[in-house]
Amino acid sequence: MAGQKIPCGTSNLRRVIASASAFRSIWMPERANLGLFGRDLADRPGYSGRHAAVFHRQAFEMSPDDAPVRHVPVLGREAVEALAPREGGVYVDGTFGAGGYSRAILKVPGTRVIGIDRDRTAIAGGFDLVDSSGGRLTLVEDRFSNLADVCAAQGITAVDGVVMDVGVSSMQLDQSERGFSFRLNGPLDMRMGQDGPTAADVVAKASETDLANIIYIFGEERHSRAVARAIVAARKEAPITTTRALADIVSRVVRSKPNEIHPATRTFQALRIFVNEELDELHAALVAAEQMLKPGGRLAVV
């Protein structure tokens, strides 16, 4: 895949990409050369569970509407309207989550959905919808950047539509053990999947300069240098392993006024994006979606 520049309003992004590659060379040697804009999907190292977790269970006598709903996408109706699923069409739900988009697509008779999610708990939570879909829903534990390979493994060469809802979900934020939120104390993890370095690894090993760049570019935190200095100073005293510990460190150097966002919001966002390679994944997924869409097919991204 040819590298493409994504406008970001700063010349520091390339430096962060180089730093990311250097950091991953320590924690993930097999992925050390994966930059944000130059990754060839065909050469991507297989990650644990890739295509391995395909769930397609025996259907029961239920309709998709009967399955329990754990989370409703904020722009679900608008995204599905833009997707305009048609009878007999084949669609990819690149961020299955709680199945909101898949459930809406399956309401159209004869549609088939390939649901993808790198979060194993989301895939496991989709079993009921698989059961109620009458064989029209297949769930795959993988990254949405691999959607072309996922479809190929299911014998699908082109699709009528792709929908993706990027970022973190409320379900993930509400699970303290996932480490996404400063509202709930838990391990400083932030991984959407089960592979790669955690946020705790990043704050423990990244240099002060790299931390400042990550927090500034991916979190748009104007106090990024002060936050990075505080993290480096704190980790000399004790490992930073919990969300509360990190939030407290950030709160000591970033002040917020009443009714403003929590002082740690931007730092947590930056680390989450970095840990999960979210911009890299989105770029690769958009390219893959364009390749997979039939003429007249639709792509809806929230």
UniProtKB/TrEMBL annotation:
One of its GO terms (biological process) is rRNA base methylation. One of its GO terms (molecular function) is rRNA (cytosine-N4-)-methyltransferase activity. One of its GO terms (cellular component) is cytoplasm. Pfam families: Methyltransf_5. Keywords: Methyltransferase, rRNA processing, S-adenosyl-L-methionine, Transferase. Belongs to the methyltransferase superfamily. RsmH family. This is 16S rRNA (Cytosine(1402)-N(4))-methyltransferase RsmH. It comes from Candidatus Afipia apatlaquensis. The gene is rsmH.
